[in-house]
Amino acid sequence: MRLSFSHGWTQGIAIGGTVAVLGTLLASHLAFADTSVSTEAQLRAALNDPAQATGTITLGSDISVSSSIIIPASFQGNIDGAGHSITASSTNPLSGGALGDDAKGMLIASGGSRISFRNVTLNGSDAWRTLWMVSGSTVTLEDATVTNGYAPTADLNDGGGIMVFAGNSDTSLTLTRVTMKNSQAFGRTDETKTGNGGAIAGRGQ
User: Fold this and answer.
1) Please, are residues 117 and 142 in contact by the beta-carbon 8 Å criterion?
2) Cα(first)–Cα(last) distance of the chain, in Å?
3) Which of 95, 133, 170, 204 sits at 20 to 30 Å (Cα–Cα) from 19?
């Protein structure tokens, strides 16, 4: 396991399993096709469009997300926020039980996916974890902000901002000039299961 941080953190960090968090950009991405999106439906469609698989998806406006967006393994491209935000709907907080996708996060990076976020704010609205990384995924955040993440479910209560679930596959998170703030990880009210890593947590199996 290799850990390197180039910036200070405002929240606690807990890392476990095979997780690499690096302070430098590891890979460049060649644009295959580019598109602009302004709605949740357009973002979902672009992520699942084979023509966009290695291209750049640029946000044309702030986007509100009503349920988890699963980024497929086929997506190997970029999401350029252009200064905009992806924000969880505050009227639709975590649901679906411990194993439901909505309980995992606003954005879910599938195993095998390689995603580069840049110039974007990921906002959990104190209702959702902003990003869940499935084992085998690779995510880069550059010039980004992760804020108001929340992980309240008893069995998935780590990493209010970002949860890196490594499993048996190499899983990589790269952060460059990223601000993490106001994220929380809580367990049950009786404290029989408390959360770890308000900003970022990593877990093996």
Assistant:
1) yes
2) 15
3) 95
